[in-house]
Write a structure and sequence with these properties.
The chain has 3 domains: 180 residues, FAD/NAD(P)-binding domain (3-Layer(bba) Sandwich), CATH 3.50.50.60; 161 residues, D-Amino Acid Oxidase, subunit A, domain 2 (D-Amino Acid Oxidase, Chain A, domain 2), CATH 3.30.9; 99 residues, Orthogonal Bundle (Helicase, Ruva Protein, domain 3), CATH 1.10.8.870. Strands 3, 4, 5, 6, 11, 12, 13, 14, 15 and 16 form a 10-stranded mixed β-sheet that branches. Strands 1, 2, 7, 8, 9, 10, 17 and 18 form an 8-stranded mixed β-sheet that branches. The two termini are 39 Å apart. By secondary structure, the protein is an alpha+beta fold. It contains 16 helices and 18 strands. The radius of gyration is 22 Å and the shape is globular. Bound molecules: flavin-adenine dinucleotide.
Length: 523
């Protein structure tokens, strides 16, 4: 996938695109796949890298959302369960079945959560991944050997899905390209073009050359997540906000803290939050918090109190208490919650919303990763109508995604490439230098860097270490130590000079500071 070739297509288009999607997260990529699969000429532009926003910072679950049962939102759970099944069928290389154990320390928790999870099974129906079960103390400890034993009365186990969010985003990008669509990172939209009161295109700047492109479009979809109100105000400066951002933070720990194959799910912490401790790529991801925020930086920083909350609660459920110094990485993301006028962010709807402005600009926001496909379908339905495009049905429910192959039975780093895995391995076989590991504590080799640049539009050290591989989240310090080598490889692939290479390493070092709780790589 060649960025320069994509850029030439934009410069030489000569006629309006059918659909231009702004934003390269789950929602925008989902809309672009849906539009391209319908045969519309489709372009997606992302201001930074694909999935740089919220879509690389999730809890990595493809789930119906057990927590919504509590609020009686059965429709929301049903939709998400249906989408969970669709995604497992269309991207079996990226989504796997995971057992979640709800530990019970009070007598009523077993029967109470057992009954709730039976309802979850019922709603999943044929799309169920296996029935939930009550567990005795021994069976609970067998599933989570490091679970706090003191006062344990047993538990309940249920099944849900797990994935790699940034890799799914990359897969959607590759699917857009397979379908003949065009997508560009580092291409922010700075303005909207209007003709006769209608939005007829966008002005986007290529950050690599500095050149602004005026891009004509019959339909424009705003899929910019927590930034969607800023985009809507380019269309209507008086537009009222429709999203309310809420920050969620995770910490990543060594697998020794939770060596079993199952995840822990705590449905109700002291202050009513849901907490997960999930095995992921050989580590444990613990999260998440839910803090209303007003600032929406592209690099949100975990708050000190969020880290304290996660450490304190992890310590309650695990035999070994994790300390700040045990944190391999921490990361924060911003939920684009649809405003419902409620005061507390946690009470707002997680459902998605599609808005069509009088100018024809379509905004799609809210929802969750699990429902990205149905969000894309809804947005493209509305955009086709607004832009007067020929009516064509969505095809994405049964569309296999790029790399679609054998189902994942065992989590393994190369599975995320699906059918591309053999080509990545071949790179390593053909060039001994590319077979070298990037770092002793990371499960990656140099070939994956070359592949990310050549085939997955990675442009920076961060793109490679944060999203094409997940090195930054698996071990932020190790990823920093690997950065100079990655910068060398990138400079070679992209024909950049030594000054560029040095700047890349410096910029990456500054980024890593935000992924370490004590604020220092050596801390
Ligand atoms: P984003 O991913 O933020 O994408 C918007 C993109 O628009 C960004 O990349 C941004 O750079 C780009 N952009 C903004 N302005 C411009 C512009 N002017 N020009 C071009 N591009 C622009 N969901 C699940 O299903 N499972 C989970 O386990 C889960 N866990 C979560 C945990 C946390 C902590 C959070 C915060 C969310 C979680 N979610 C989960 C929800 C899910 O991650 C989000 O709903 C989803 O990622 C939002 O995707 P998006 O594309 O709308 O937004």
């Amino acid at each position: 996938m060649d960025r320069d070739a994509m850029l030439r297509r934009v410069a030489d288009a000569g006629r309006p695109w059918d659909v231009v999607v702004i934003g390269g997260g789950a929602t925008g990529l989902g809309a672009a796949v849906d539009a391209a699969a319908r045969g519309y000429d489709t372009l997606l532009v992302e201001q930074s890298d694909f999935a740089k926003g919220t879509s690389s910072r999730s809890t990595k679950l493809v789930h119906g959302g057990v927590r919504y049962l509590k609020s009686g939102d059965v429709g929301l759970v049903l939709e998400a369960l249906r989408e969970r099944g669709t995604l497992m069928r269309n991207a079996p290389h990226l989504v796997r079945n995971l057992s979640f154990v709800v530990p019970a320390y009070v007598w009523w928790e077993g029967p109470f959560y057992g009954a709730g999870l039976k309802l979850y099974d019922l709603l999943a129906g044929e799309m169920g991944l296996g029935p939930s079960r009550r567990l005795g103390i021994e069976a609970t400890l067998k599933a989570i050997p490091t679970l706090e034993r003191d006062g344990l009365r047993g538990g309940v186990v249920y099944q849900d899905g797990q994935f790699d969010d940034a890799r799914l985003a990359t897969t959607l990008l590759l699917t857009v390209a397979d379908l003949g669509g065009c997508a560009l990172n580092y291409m922010p939209v700075e303005g909207l073009v209007r003709a006769g009161g209608r939005v007829s295109g966008v002005v986007a700047r290529d950050l690599e050359s500095g050149r602004a492109h005026t891009i004509a479009a019959r339909a424009v979809i705003n899929a910019t997540g927590v930034y969607c109100d800023a985009l809507r105000r380019l269309d209507d400066p008086g537009a009222a906000s429709v999203v309310s951002p809420s920050q969620g933070t995770h910490i990543v720990l060594d697998r020794a803290f939770q060596p079993g194959a199952s995840a822990i799910m705590v449905p109700h912490t002291d202050d009513g939050r849901v907490l997960f401790a999930v095995p992921w790529h050989g580590r444990v991801v613990v999260g998440t918090t839910d803090t209303p925020v007003t600032d929406t930086p592209l690099e949100p920083r975990p708050l000190g109190e969020e880290i304290d909350f996660l450490l304190e609660h992890a310590a309650r459920y695990l035999t070994r208490d994790p300390k700040r110094s045990d944190i391999l990485a921490c990361f924060a993301g911003l939920r684009p919650l649809v405003r419902a006028g409620a005061a507390a962010t946690a009470a707002l709807s997680r459902d998605h919303m599609v808005l069509v402005a009088p100018s024809g600009l379509v905004t799609v926001t809210g929802g969750k990763w699990t429902t990205y496909r149905s969000m894309g379908e809804d947005a493209v339905d509305r955009a086709a109508a607004a832009g007067g495009l020929p009516e064509r049905p969505s095809r994405t429910r049964t569309l296999p995604l790029h790399g679609h192959g054998t189902p994942v039975r065992r989590p393994e780093p190369w599975d995320v490439y699906g059918t591309d895995a053999s080509a990545v391995r071949r790179l390593a076989r053909e060039d001994a230098a590319l077979a070298e590991p990037l770092h002793p504590r990371l499960p990656y080799v140099a070939a994956q860097v070359a592949w990310a640049v050549r085939r997955e539009m990675a442009r920076t050290v961060e793109d490679v270490l944060a999203r094409r591989t997940r090195a930054l989240l698996l071990d932020a310090r190790a990823s920093l130590e690997a950065a100079p080598r990655v910068a060398d490889l990138l400079a070679r692939e992209l024909c950049r000079d030594a000054a560029w290479r040095d700047r890349q390493v410096e910029e990456y070092a500054a980024l890593v500071e935000g992924y370490l709780p004590t604020g220092g790589a050596g801390a």
